[in-house]
């Protein structure tokens, strides 16, 4: 087994047992990145070995990690995958970065994303499209596609992503890794460039459920700089190995409907069998209102985005196209700086927030969000976890001209967690048409430790990994 194939936990164990040093670790990941990122293009800019610091061997987390390029790392460019910010350098560290630093982890590089995290493929990045390490002709998913590809290809042991409507979970599903979105309010958003402030949450992408819990523990905590964070002390590792027998799982019928690729559906029902063999109770339930979640998301998230993106005006951050008047300068800067998809979201958002449409769209969507939340609350009275496939289809070929609406629909199963603030996770459950596909689990707000417990229970008995050997994409063979 190669060094770069290890999980976070086994890498740390190796340091403790003097199998290798943090220098060996950084070097191994760096070498692999240097050779293979030319094919994958996970990083916005390939890290330079001389600029990566070597972790302290006695640290809690003596490892390198990658960061989605919408999270601030002081002194480094934070492009958000946009022309508008291509030259913007962060002037402070995001709280999550501070926390990782305090635990000894070292920043390795910034990863590609759909512009301002709007998208599901990285095709909306202003710079280039990241390739799926399992099949270079396919998308890695998005918007945290660079982070997911970097982990799947063995460039870093873990990475940070942001999830507004599924952006950690969808690429995790497409790349065969674990993507975790914590309950809204557990992790500080300070230093994350806001997309939909009531939906955004930062979380780890990694290779095992235990790693997700381990990194999650470091990220979680109240932050004075983000008033939406809560003081909810929770140890994600505490009950992770508990037996899962007797847990009640619900499958929303609408989330395994006909529109889902049959191979993914097959893999999903196989996963359900594994849980049933573990004496979990799995029942199908009807939740007709679930179908409105995607519509509500695509009204509220553009609304929030249009207001959050108003600050990119050529005056304060990044790009400025010099023009005679202030209005022309702002117009030209935004016109040139934003890509097509971001403009579409701003237009949609401005429309639903406009005086004449506010009640009919934005206000109504807020009401439906509330109704959905009440219904979900009821479901969680009878059940511990919601199960579904993460993605509806295997990752699209990059060359395929997917229209925006089809891309929006790929978020169908993931947006609910953001609308209601649920902790959610995608983990490998097998393959569909030769590409990885993910099992999606959601629990009641702040029961993140239960979520990780169930996911770990499935991971242990799914037989997808042998002796902690995680399935790896092999881009070198392609
Ligand atoms: N694909 C969704 C969108 O485009 C989700 C993005 C995200 O979670 N950042 O809005």
Characterization of this structure:
This protein has 478 residues and is of the alpha/beta class. The protein is 36% helix and 12% strand. It has 14 helices and 10 strands. The protein has a 10-stranded mixed beta sheet with strand order 2-1-3-5-4-9-10-8-6-7, with helices on both faces. Helix 3 links the parallel strand 1 and strand 2. Helix 8 packs across helix 11. Glutamine binds at residues 117-120, 143, 162-167, 195, 301, 411.
Keywords:
478 residues, 14 helices, alpha/beta, ten-stranded mixed sheet, binds glutamine, Amidase signature (AS) enzymes
Number of helix segments?
A: 14
Order of strands in the sheet with most strands:
2-1-3-5-4-9-10-8-6-7
Beta content: 5-15%
List low-pLDDT spans: none
Mean of pLDDT: 96
Bulk shape: globular
Q: How far is the first residue's CA from the last residue's CA? A: 20 Å
What's the helix-strand series?
HHEHEHEHEEHEHEHHHHEHHEEH
CATH superfamily: Amidase signature (AS) domain
Radius of gyration: 21 Å
CATH architecture descriptor text: Alpha-Beta Complex
Number of domains: 1
Give the helix/strand class: alpha/beta
Number of extended strands: 10
């Amino acid at each position: 087994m190669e060094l770069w194939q290890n999980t976070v936990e086994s890498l740390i164990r190796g340091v403790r047992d003097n199998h290798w040093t943090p220098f060996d670790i950084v070097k191994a990941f760096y070498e692999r990145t240097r050779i293979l990122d030319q094919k994958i293009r996970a990083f916005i800019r390939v890290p330079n070995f001389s600029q990566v610091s070597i972790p302290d061997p006695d640290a809690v987390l003596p490892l390198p990690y990658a960061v989605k390029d919408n999270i601030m790392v002081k002194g480094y460019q934070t492009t958000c995958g946009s022309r508008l910010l291509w030259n913007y350098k962060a002037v402070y560290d995001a709280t999550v970065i501070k926390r990782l630093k305090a635990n000894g982890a070292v920043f390795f590089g910034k990863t590609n994303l759909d512009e301002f995290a709007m998208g599901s493929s990285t095709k909306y990045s202003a710079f280039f499209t990241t390739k799926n390490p399992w099949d270079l002709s396919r998308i890695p998913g998005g918007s945290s596609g660079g982070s997911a590809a970097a982990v799947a290809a063995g460039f870093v042991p873990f990475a940070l992503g942001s999830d507004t409507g599924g952006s950690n979970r969808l690429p995790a599903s497409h790349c065969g890794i674990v993507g975790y979105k914590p309950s809204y309010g557990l992790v500080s958003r300070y230093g994350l460039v806001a997309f939909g402030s009531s939906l955004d949450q930062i979380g780890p992408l990694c290779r095992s459920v235990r790693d997700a819990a381990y990194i999650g523990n470091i990220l979680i905590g109240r932050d004075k700089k983000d008033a939406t964070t809560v003081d909810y002390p929770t140890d994600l590792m505490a009950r992770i190995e508990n037996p899962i027998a007797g847990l009640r799982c619900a499958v929303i019928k609408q989330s395994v409907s006909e529109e889902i690729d049959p191979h993914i559906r097959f893999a999903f029902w196989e996963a359900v069998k594994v849980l049933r063999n573990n004496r979990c109770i799995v029942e199908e339930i009807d939740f007709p209102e679930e179908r409105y979640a995607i519509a509500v998301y695509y009204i509220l998230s553009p609304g929030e985005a249009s207001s959050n993106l108003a600050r990119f005006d050529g005056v304060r951050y990044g790009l400025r196209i010099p023009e005679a008047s202030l209005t022309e300068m702002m117009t030209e800067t935004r016109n040139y700086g934003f890509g097509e998809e971001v403009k579409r979201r701003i237009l949609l958002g401005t429309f639903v927030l406009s005086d004449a449409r506010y009640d009919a769209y934005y206000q109504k969507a807020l009401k439906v969000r509330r109704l959905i939340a009440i219904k979900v609350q009821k479901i969680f009275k009878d059940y511990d976890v919601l199960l579904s496939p993460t993605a509806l289809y295997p990752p699209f070929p990059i060359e395929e001209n997917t229209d925006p609406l089809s891309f929006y629909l790929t978020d169908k199963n993931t947006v609910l967690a953001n609308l209601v603030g649920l902790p959610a996770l995608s983990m490998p459950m097998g393959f569909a048409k030769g590409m990885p596909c993910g099992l999606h689990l959601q629990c009641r707000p702040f029961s993140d430790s239960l979520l990780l417990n169930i996911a770990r229970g499935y991971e242990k008995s799914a037989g997808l990994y042998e002796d902690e050997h995680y399935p790896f994409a092999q881009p070198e063979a392609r």
